[in-house]
Amino acid sequence: MPPPNHMNNRKLYLWSVTSALAGFLFGFDTVVISGAEQTIEKLWQLSPTMHGLAMSAALWGTVLGALIGAWPAERFGRRNTLLGIGVLYFTSAVGSALAPEEYTFMFARFIGGIGVGISTVAAPMYIAEIAPAHLRGRLAGMFQFNIVFGILIAFVSNAALANIGDNAWRWMLGIEALPAIVYTALCFLIPESPRWLITKRNKSDEAIETLAQTHPGLSKEELLDKAHEIATSKPTGPKASFWRKELKRPILLAFLIAFFNQLSGINAILYFAPRIFEKTGLGESAALLQSVGIGVTNLIFTFVGLYLIDRLGRRTLLYLGSIGYILSLGACSVAFFTENFSIVPICIFAFIAAHAIGQGAVIWVFIGEIFPNSDRASGQALGSFTHWIFAASLTLVFPFFVTKFPAGYVFGFFCLMMVIQLLWVRFFVPETKGVSLERIQALFAQKR
């Protein structure tokens, strides 16, 4: 076997990072609202219901984006879909910043949410389809890294812009237009997914050119074998329904990993972090700075998760994350009940660390691995839709529940759900570390 071409390795990383930058915009877009939400509530004198709608508008957009994301990815290709996402992010950033009232604001946020939803379908799928099996976890995990990096930059940006005047919130939201432009320009430099070219367009020669660059250690014969393996994984005859018996197991796995991801409370805690910290007695400025600490913690432990995902495996990280969730959420619940507020920031940071190592590192990698090539877009859309419908629902009702019920009950509920997740991981989640996508498809077919 010829030695790997390091220039091609650099190309593989560049293409993966470019696609993963959709995750940066995802993280920035969904969390930047945390610095503006209380100002918007006062500015437009929003009722609790309207406030919840304004806060969750982007998330309802992600629900739609996740639901329809498979269509452009299949019809127009992964690359063109990633390009379109950048346009949606830019439009949302400008529209949100210039919104004269709450309805225009919600519509602009909804547009950005569509971009987020589609990005959670197209970006992890694109990376999974270009990456060699031994690097797939690490490269696909870049999407999650960029999400948390975007979250950190959003928190830092909010803190930096908080005191520039009455329109600070508009700058907080509008500044996203700059990375959206950069991301869109970079997308012109990436190739199309070789698996899409073979299974959807029958362009084996073009696909082999990309495979040669993403798998630099393979000989010409091995590249031809790889292309043949991809081609033969495509079902023959009329297109089968996605909701068929042989996909029962991956469908259930994708639904449940996304379900448990949100029932940890991660999005509700990220979006309302300043408000949660203010409940512990911190002032508004101190609460914003504590939120920056969440972003830093998330980033550091995401590095740890990405380092471990191809070493310890997906299942082990879910174990570690589940245990961390249970301990941190349980301690946070007790802290609110006993009014020992000094430990709440520590509990929240521990919760974020557990998420970053466990669910955060695994979810988008895992969903992108478990479906056959011909059904990967639909499977990714199912997982993304499940993730976002629960994220939107929790964000919509979170302001109501934290005003009607003691915070200890809310964190206790999230803790209970993570106990259930731990049992699910123990008895139902398989390991996919280091296994080719086509081999995973064959293994699931044998066990149905």
How would you summarize what this structure contains?
This protein has helices at residues 6-31, 37-43, 48-68, 70-75, 78-98, 102-130, 136-161, 168-174, 177-187, 194-201, 204-214, 220-232, 248-263, 266-271, 273-279, 284-309, 314-338, 344-357, 359-369, 376-404, 407-428, 437-447.
Write structural notes for this entry.
The chain has 448 residues and is mainly alpha-helical. It is built from 22 helices and no strands. The chain has helices spanning 6-31, 37-43, 48-68, 70-75, 78-98, 102-130, 136-161, 168-174, 177-187, 194-201, 204-214, 220-232, 248-263, 266-271, 273-279, 284-309, 314-338, 344-357, 359-369, 376-404, 407-428, 437-447. Helix 1 (6-31) packs antiparallel against helix 6 and helix 16 runs parallel beside helix 18 (344-357). The protein is globular, with a radius of gyration of 21 Å.
SSE run: HHHHHHHHHHHHHHHHHHHHHH
Computed CA radius of gyration, to the nearest angstrom: 21 Å
**Proportion in helices:** over 70%
Please provide the count of β strands. 0
Count of alpha/pi helices: 22
Strand fraction: under 5%
Approximate shape: globular
Cα(first) to Cα(last) distance is: 36 Å
Average pLDDT, rounded to a whole number, is 84
Q: Sheet bearing the most strands, described?
A: none
Overall SS class = mainly alpha
* Poorly predicted spans: none
